[in-house]
Amino acid sequence: MGAILTQHTAWTNVERALRTLRAHKLLEARRLAAVPAADLGRLIRSAGTFRVKTRRLRSFLKFLLARGDGRMARLRREDLQSLRAALLAVPGLGPETTDAILLYAAGRPVFVVDAYTRRVLARHRLIPPGASYEAIRSFVESHLPSDPRLFNEYHALLVAVGKRHCRTVPRCLDCPLRFDLQGRPPRAI
Ligand code: SF4
Hints:
Elements: H1 2-5, H2 11-23, H3 29-33, H4 37-43, H5 50-68, H6 72-75, H7 80-88, H8 95-105, H9 115-123, H10 133-143, H11 148-164
C-alpha cells in the first residue's frame, strides 16, 4: 500500500494514511478491496491525489486477490520475471512502484531505482546522465549479489546520502562517498 501511496508525496503523508487504514483494520487485501471507492478515497486523503491513488490501490488489490489470493507471501514463489511483467501491466504501477512492491513487500531480489540512486551514480560517472530506469536497475543488480536484504540496505544508504549530502547542489566535502570521486569533481547532471 505504501509503495502506491508514496507516489508524488512525502512519506510522512503516507504514514498518516496508513495509520488511518490500520486504525480501521483495513491493512488486509480482502477487507480493503471491499471498501467502496469513495470511502477509500476519504481514508487515504492525507496521501494526496487520492482519487488517482484510490483507483491504483483498487487495481493492485484486484491483481493481488487474483494472483496471490490476497497474500504477498504467495508472490514469493512465483517466477520473478513473469511476476514483474504482470505487475507492470497493472494500471498505475510504474517500474519504481513495482520494484518497491517486489523488494519490500514480496522480499524479491529487485533493486529499486529512485532519484537519489540516479543522482549519486551519475555524479560518480557510473551511469550516463540520461540512463533509463532499466539500465540503472540492471547496472546495480549486475554488480551486487542478488540478495533482497542487501538491495534494501543499499537503497536505504543511497537515500541517506542523497538527503544529507548529494542534494541538488552536492555537499561533497563531508560526504562519506567523496573518496570515490578520486579527486575529480562530481559530474554535472
Ligand atoms: S561525494 Fe559528492 S557527488 Fe558523491 S555522493 Fe557525496 S555529495 Fe554526491
